[in-house]
Design a protein that fits this description.
alpha+beta, S-adenosyl-L-methionine-dependent methyltransferases, Alpha-Beta Plaits, Rossmann fold, 7-stranded parallel β-sheet, 5-stranded antiparallel β-sheet, 14 helices, 35 strands, 20% helix, 28% strand, elongated
Length: 740
């Protein structure tokens, strides 16, 4: 008969419970010995500000101008240095002509021009008094006036296999050669005392006698531009350290270590205007403008800015960030800030990667947890912030002017160049990838750190973004290792959906990322794109994942394949800003690192009992996660009742028996078997309250992530029914946890 197999199991179960009762012990028998291891922007409209004193420096933005930057963007993508130089000269002349009527009126009111910008539609001016400022606001074509102000500057373990995993890549020869990174900072150490040469971290192999770097005195420092008021030699020992993390070599200290791209070119833009390295917004815009102008001459593909910003997207320096990324086809990486929950000086721009800081993984700490000072989102208007996290705690850094020592420092200033250096590596290997594809690849290759941060205040994407930087996975994408899809596409108002296919293998994890640019930078608006992944089964009706934020220009979907198939990836243009009919994007899809999953325990069915008030049920289960022991309770039973907790892999069948199976036919009226009793994993005897705790260990293996199984408690009750057995409800277990 169909119940023979179950009756055999019951016989074995009675023997088990008899032994347990005799021992009068409820000691658990875990599966393994594993134990748990120890905008408001509208209210801040710039036009209403009043300077504290006069004369005052302000930034004036204009509504219209006679030119755009698309010709320059095309020349940069052609990598024509001659054309770029000629176009920049023309832009410098055009902006003077365009702003001439404004300049005349400004001079008539006693004001003076400080800088005229072609990257952003703006200029920097000094006004003598409040009357001049008010007249300036009423000048035709003036869009807004904002105050200029100062912004301040906001590696050995971090590069090893336990963290960003770049050391092995460097041993294999991947060091960023042929690509340059622009460091917009407090300056660089270019005159080491007694040597009058750049710091040795900027030389090939860290050897000042190796003059093959092609830059200043044979170093890899290709150029050093003074943009701020102070000399370009590093004023506060900040820019030198930032550059070393991104692209430095070892120096004379035994504790030193190379940065991410130690053969890359470095172009410095010193922005310090006063002591402490502080830079004005005027200077920051000039620096970005200079990097765009130099981008082809020095093959700058990445910019790093480890300075504060403004959390409003249309603030002038934030516009410069977004335009440098789009027009210059450069990956712009910014420090997320060290304000904790105060994000006033976060970066409101969108076409950049804002980086938060986490602790490194070491033998004494698990790492990947966000530091308390790393700035959190959301920004005004709801923007996710930051976009990514990287090691930014207790990093080993060089010291300006002293090459035989190192120092320890922390902050997002040093987390950002980790990402900048990784972007250099990617673009040095995949030389055809543009900035959009590079940004998408950085997100697609990131490691999910939700599990490491779920107990922190404000946990979620506004704590750690899309995840933790992983150079090794990023370079796999660059080289096309495994399943990789890299492409550029465009959604339009007439073709709002673009679909791609990705072959996947059942049980493996994948990531899909897209990146696009904010196009109308003078206003707080952006086109909105979504991405979703669907199984090809059931005509694509099975959704595997969707990315549908509304205030950022990146989306990421992580999913586990449920079958061997070609999944459908669809990028959709959800909304377009006024005047824009098309949006280019970059897309990257690849096999991914296992990602964090929340473990769940869900009750299934009903229990049968001794009486209407004595019903043994399963309840109170903790989150089941790999490498931990989860627990639950048998409750509502009679005191001293022996029981067994079963584990089963199926809620559909047990041999020839279809589940759920009512047990009335074999003498247990009202009782039901919900999950296959494949194993007895633990058991015991209920206490005086009719309760017992059960504990089950889960091995620390990624293969168990997302797996499902069930538990059901079977209590021995000889006088209750012919079978002498009561069944609890079942618990459906879905294993989660942090990937190992």
């Amino acid at each position: 008969m169909s119940g023979i197999r179950f009756l055999t199991f019951v016989s074995i179960l009675h023997g088990f419970c008899a032994t347990t009762l005799a021992q009068n012990s409820a000691a658990p028998t875990p599966l393994t010995s594993a134990e748990r291891p120890s905008v408001a922007t509208a209210t801040r409209e710039a036009a209403i500000f009043e300077p504290a004193s006069y004369p005052a420096r302000v930034l004036v933005e204009f509504a219209e101008r006679s030119f755009d930057l698309e010709t320059l963007a095309a020349a940069i993508r052609r990598r024509s240095a001659e054309d770029v130089e000629a176009i920049v000269r023309d832009l410098e002349q055009r902006v003077v002509r365009d702003q001439a009527p404004f300049a005349d009126q400004l001079h008539a009111s006693g004001g003076t021009i400080v800088e005229q910008f072609w990257l952003v539609n703006a200029c920097s001016v000094d006004v003598p008094d409040a009357r001049s400022l008010e007249a300036l606001r009423r000048t035709p074509n003036v869009l807004r006036v904002i105050p200029d102000g100062f912004r301040r500057p906001s590696i050995k373990t971090s590069t090893n296999a336990d963290n960003h995993a770049v050391d092995a890549l460097q041993k294999a020869g991947f060091k960023g050669k042929g690509v340059s990174v622009a460091i917009l900072d407090s300056g660089l150490d270019i005159t080491a005392p007694g040597r009058l040469r750049p710091h040795r971290t900027f030389f090939v192999n860290g050897d000042p006698n190796n003059r093959s770097g092609g830059g200043l005195q044979g170093s890899r420092l290709l150029a050093m531009r003074q943009v701020g008021a102070l000399p370009p030699d590093d004023t506060i020992d900040h820019g030198t350290a930032v550059a070393a993390v991104a692209a430095g070599e070892t120096w004379a200290s035994t504790g030193s270590d190379a940065g991410h791209a130690p053969l890359a070119g470095i172009v410095g833009y010193s922005m310090a205007d006063i002591g402490g390295g502080y830079a004005t917004l005027t200077t920051m815009v000039k620096a970005f403008q200079g990097a765009v102008a130099d981008s082809v001459q020095y093959n700058i593909r990445v910019i790093n800015l480890s300075y504060e910003g403004t959390n409003i997207s249309y603030w002038t320096e934030e516009q410069a960030i977004d335009l440098a990324a789009r027009i210059g086809d450069m990956v712009v990486v910014v420090s997320g800030g060290n304000g904790g929950t105060n994000n006033h000086f976060a970066h409101g721009s969108t076409n950049r990667i804002a980086v938060g800081a986490v602790r490194s993984r070491t033998p004494s700490q698990s790492g990947r947890d966000v530091t308390t000072t790393s700035t959190r989102g959301p920004l005004p208007g709801g923007d996710q912030y930051p976009n990514l996290v990287a090691c930014g705690d207790s990093l080993v850094l060089p010291v300006k002017d002293v090459e035989g020592v190192d120092r320890i420092a922390s902050g997002t200033s040093f987390a950002a160049p980790q990402v900048a250096g990784a972007a250099v590596l990617f673009r040095s290997v995949d030389t055809t990838a543009d900035a959009l594809v590079t940004r998408a690849a950085i997100f697609a290759s990131s490691e999910d750190v939700a599990g490491k941060n779920r107990y922190l205040l404000g946990a979620g994407e506004n704590l750690y973004g899309f995840g933790f930087l992983r150079d090794d996975r990023l370079l796999d994408i660059a080289r096309g290792v495994g399943t990789v899809l890299k492409t550029n596409g465009t959604v339009t108002t007439t073709r709002a959906n673009v679909t791609y296919g990705l072959p996947v293998v059942a049980g493996r994890d994948y990531a899909v990322a897209i990146a696009w640019d904010r196009l109308n930078v003078a206003f707080d608006e952006r086109c909105n794109l979504d991405v979703e992944v669907r199984s090809s089964a059931a005509n694509g009706r099975v959704l595997l994942g969707r990315g549908n934020h509304t205030r950022i220009v990146h989306e990421l979907v992580r999913f586990r394949a449920s079958a061997n198939e070609v999944v459908q990836i669809t990028v959709s243009g959800v909304s377009f800003v006024l005047g824009r009919t098309s949006v280019p994007f970059g897309l990257v899809a690849s096999e991914a690192l296992p990602f964090f999953a929340e473990g769940t325990a869900t009750s299934v069915g009903q229990a049968c009992g001794f009486s209407s008030t004595e019903i043994p049920v399963l309840a109170g289960f903790t989150s089941p996660e790999i490498g931990t022991t989860y627990s639950g309770m048998v409750q509502g039973s009679r005191a001293g009742t022996p029981f067994a907790l079963t584990l089963g892999v199926s809620f559909q069948s047990f041999g020839a028996i279809t589940l759920p199976w009512p047990l009335a036919a074999i003498g247990a009226n009202g009782c039901t078997l919900y999950v296959s009793p494949d194993l007895v994993v633990t058991g015991g005897v209920t206490d005086a309250r009719g309760e017992a705790t059960v504990r089950i260990g889960i091995p620390p293996t990624n293969a168990l992530l997302h797996s499902t199984f069930g538990h059901q408690a079977l209590s021995v009750a000889p006088s209750t029914n012919q079978l002498g057995l009561l069944t609890s409800n079942a618990m459906r277990i879905r294993v989660g946890g942090d990937p190992r």
